[in-house]
Specification:
The complex is a heterodimer of chains A (577) and B (175). Helices cover 36% and strands 17% of the residues of chain A. With 577 residues, chain A is α/β, with parallel strands linked by helices. Chain B folds into 2 domains: 2-78, 2-Layer Sandwich (Alpha-Beta Plaits); 82-152, 2-Layer Sandwich (Alpha-Beta Plaits). In chain B, strands 5, 6, 7, 8 and 9 form a 5-stranded antiparallel sheet that branches. Chain B has a 4-stranded antiparallel sheet with strand order 2-3-1-4, with helices on one face. Classes of the chains: A alpha/beta (577), B alpha+beta (175). Strand 9 (176-179) of chain A pairs antiparallel with strand 10 (170-173) of chain B, so a sheet runs across the interface.
Chain lengths: 577, 175
């Protein structure tokens, strides 16, 4: 029997096992919406802005590892998703975005709600398609999911003109697909594995530095085995948190601009750096010419273009983090050579000396709510088990520093693109994927307003997200940079006339709370976490002047770190080697 | 350093803009670019001339390989190769110039392919340096218009850039 293109598309999504699609209807997508209406296998979540659809699909993808799906109309529908697509692209998140397009014969005519969706998204997708024949829908959707979820994952857009969704064809969904122009590698080259093992075991001051690649490759277990086998220190990037258990003694915290002193000094002073599924981002390396002056580098990544892009590498290994870690662990177990125990002992003594500084210290004797304190309490009360999404800025860094993630896929944030507005919609995707789990959205009064309309979506689908709004009345990270680097000229970083968030949340039908005293923080969080079936918006009025420490200023080396003024002792800084 | 990268692309709408977009987005140079379908109508061959340090060229080839539409790629300048470019030049051919241009065309083994009272149009193929030299030689006569194709290139000997004839673009299986 022949089906319409719209019905074929929905059947493809069903056969692909899609649970949820996040979308917003419009003219060019109406045949598709009609096909959605006539079935109940794929559930549609109606967002309030297409940016929210892309972020929600992204949150779903990051917390499950499966592709997130968004459906939007042509023109503004698809342009509104561009921020979300670019966000997913930077963090290698598998999205399939389906956009309606004006009818084929109107393409290029400047038709109503027409835009060149494939052209606009080209620089921020892994790949995209314009479907020109109803017979191509099924294979194109198959390719879209295949490309999005394999190799280094990423977003794929499929643009479908309205007439194609009305035309008819026989339906058959391919079971497998292979493409001559796309063959992602998985296993590492045996010769390179051998070289890597030699270098790894020769280390006197090793550091294992891992990123989001561990999360996407489902390699957390393999990483844990590898690190424990060696007894080497491990640091995670912002995207890699949860890849190694944060409560494990071999974990030295996050590295980079707001990483811990021990992670940054340990990386700086390392003689062998083992990078896995990380891409030497500028927020991690600081000034490249000052990065790891003594280190010989092993770099494992599934994307060859990530290797030797910023930093010269001695042993490159192209492959999936999971497969390569298995191969490395196996090879290390098989060899007679062991890690240098004596060198390791003195290396750990040095690391523990750095660690003893307690670089995340902050002023606890104050009448003001310290944002760090709120996050410590959130961690305690959720026993470290919550899914935490965040927006972008100071609150994001504090969440990364103070919430200790022991498991992968629990820390969901826009690390690469740094998209304010990501936190709430991504939390919707996470909550739908994990309906019985606590999902906390850590945000600030500036970020939350960038997608606050999604409070309405949360009400429609009863999503009991716990919003932790760290409200300091400033764009805090902008304010911090202006304090440090612009002589306290706070140019447009203060937001006057903020809404009353407590009442705003209530107006949307949720529970609102305003917390102004440190003594009320714990009680408010406990009460909110007890309300299992309600969204609770907690507006914490925090210290306006609090800064994120440590901080490596842009253009500086890891050893030029600015420390908190509340340290018990002065930082130790001497070059080893 | 100057490099010539040849690649086989899926012959799809938009494939060329993915390549061109990559170069502008990442700030790489394109000196010239030429593209046309091959004997296999599903494939286009693109020849691109670029400049950059070894690190940049390595990134360029990796980034190109990452594009889904790029099937295979070869850096021609890695080994012995032949490069050719086509030049069409319309030049003043009135008075003394008429004999001079004809003579120059013969010296460079060009062909006069169109003639009017005032102008000759000359066709010349060769590498870039030869074409440059011809243009310089014609300059005193008065050049009206210059058209260059951009470089096409092929490896010498057995080294070749090809995809097995039998390989389909995409293979899908049903249950």
């Amino acid at each position: 029997m022949e089906l319409s293109g719209a019905d074929i598309l929905i059947r493809c999504l069903q056969d692909e096992g899609v649970e949820y699609i996040f979308g917003y209807p419009g003219g060019a997508a109406l045949h598709i919406y009609d096909a959605l209406y006539r079935q109940d296998k794929v559930k549609h979540i109606l967002v309030r802005h297409e940016q929210g659809a892309a972020h929600a699909a992204d949150g779903y993808a990051r917390s499950t590892g499966k592709a997130g799906v968004a459906l939007v109309t042509s023109g503004p529908g698809v342009t509104n998703t561009v921020t979300g697509i670019a966000t997913a692209y930077m963090d290698s998140s598998p999205l399939v975005v389906i956009s309606g397009q004006v009818p084929s014969q109107l393409i290029g005519q400047d038709a109503f709600q027409e835009c060149d969706a494939v052209g606009i998204t080209r620089p921020c997708v892994k790949h995209n398609f314009l479907v020109k024949d109803v017979k191509d829908i099924a294979i194109t959707i198959k390719k879209a999911f295949y490309i999005a979820t394999t190799g280094r994952p990423g977003p794929v857009l499929v643009d479908i003109p309205k007439d194609i969704t009305a035309h008819k064809a026989e339906y058959a969904y391919p079971k497998t697909i292979s493409m001559r122009s796309y063959n992602p590698v998985t296993k590492g080259h045996p010769g390179q594995i051998k070289k890597a093992v030699e270098l790894i075991l020769s280390a006197k001051r090793p550091m294992i530095y891992t990123g989001g690649g561990i999360i996407w490759a489902e390699a957390a277990e393999e990483l844990t085995d590898f690190v424990r086998l060696l007894g080497y220190p491990c640091t995670n990037t912002l995207m890699g948190l949860g890849g190694y258990p944060a409560t494990d003694p071999l974990f030295v915290g996050m590295l980079g601009m707001h990483g811990t002193y021990e992670a940054n000094m340990g990386t700086h002073q390392s003689d062998v750096l083992i990078a896995i599924g990380a891409r030497f981002d500028d927020r991690v390396t600081g000034e490249l010419s000052k990065f790891c002056p003594h280190a010989r580098i092993v770099h494992v990544d599934i994307d060859p273009s990530s290797i030797a892009k910023n930093v010269p590498v001695e042993v490159p290994i192209v492959g999936s983090a999971k497969a390569v870690l298995q191969e490395l662990t196996k090879a290390i177990k098989a060899t007679k050579k062991k890690p240098d125990a004596a060198a390791l002992k003195s290396w750990w003594a040095q690391i523990n000396e750095w660690r003893a500084l307690n670089c995340l210290a902050y002023d606890r004797k104050t009448e003001l709510i310290k944002p760090q304190y709120v996050l410590e309490k959130l961690y305690e009360l959720t026993k470290g088990q919550a899914y935490v999404t965040s927006d972008v800025g100071q609150h994001q860094m504090w969440a990364a520093q103070f919430y200790k993630f022991d498991k992968p896929r629990h820390w969901i944030n826009s690390g690469g693109l740094g998209t304010m507005g990501f936190g709430l919609p991504s939390a919707m995707g996470v909550q739908l994927a994990h309906p019985n789990k606590t999902v906390a959205c850590v945000t600030g009064e500036a970020s939350i307003q960038m997608c606050i309309q999604e409070l309405s979506t949360c009400k429609q689908y009863d999503l009991p997200i716990k919003i932790i709004n760290l409200n300091n009345r400033y764009m805090g990270m902008v304010r911090q940079w202006q304090e440090f680097f612009y002589d306290k000229r706070y140019s447009h970083s203060y937001m006057d006339a903020l809404p009353d968030f407590e009442r705003l949340a209530e107006a949307y039908g949720h529970v609102g709370m305003k917390i102004e005293k440190p003594g009320d923080v714990e009680g408010a969080l406990k009460e909110a976490l007890k309300l299992k079936d309600r969204l609770v918006f907690m507006d914490f009025i925090t210290d306006q002047a609090e800064n994120v420490f440590p901080m490596i200023p842009a253009g500086k080396g890891h050893n030029e770190i600015i420390m908190s003024p509340f340290l018990a002792a002065a930082p130790i800084n001497r070059e080893l080697a | 350093m100057r490099h010539i990268i040849a690649m086989l692309l899926e012959n799809e709408a938009g494939a060329l803009s993915r390549v061109a977009g990559l170069f502008s987005a990442r700030g790489y140079n394109i000196e010239s670019l030429s593209v046309a379908p091959t004997e296999d109508p599903t494939l286009s061959r693109l020849t691109l001339v670029t400049t950059g340090s070894d690190e940049i060229i390595e990134q360029i080839t990796k980034q190109l390989n990452k594009l889904i539409d790029v099937v295979r790629l070869m850096e021609l300048t890695d080994g012995p190769h032949i490069e050719r470019e086509l030049l069409l030049v319309k030049v003043n051919a009135a008075g003394n110039a008429r004999e001079e241009v004809k003579r120059l065309a013969e010296i460079f083994r060009g062909r006069i392919i169109d003639v009017t009272d005032k102008n000759y149009t000359v066709e010349l193929t060769g590498d870039g340096e030869k074409l440059d030299a011809f243009i310089e030689a014609l300059r005193p006569s008065g050049i009206v218009e210059v058209v260059r194709s951009g470089v096409s290139g092929i490896a010498r000997g057995d080294r070749s850039l090809r995809v097995e004839k039998t390989s389909a673009r995409a293979t899908a299986t049903q249950d």
